[in-house]
What we know:
Elements: E1 8-11, E2 14-17, H1 61-84
Antiparallel strand pairs: 1-2
Amino acid sequence: MNVITINAIYQNGMIKPLDPVNLAENEQVVLQIIRDQEKGPAERKVISLEGIWAGLGDPTFEEIETLTKKAHQERLNKLIASLDK
């Protein structure tokens, strides 16, 4: 099973991805819904890392470390911004 994690919004009875997804037309998928309101950004848990590097080929340790640090800093900045409100 290939797992990807996306953010989506529920509008007008439909779940809509916030970013493009690489799926074939009419492809069926299984959804697991985790409500954002239930936990703050610092409390959310990663439920699966399976497939997180899919499509990147064989990244070097340095590339993985850079991507991880960048993602962590972005999350930290969002958390700090939300605390400033």
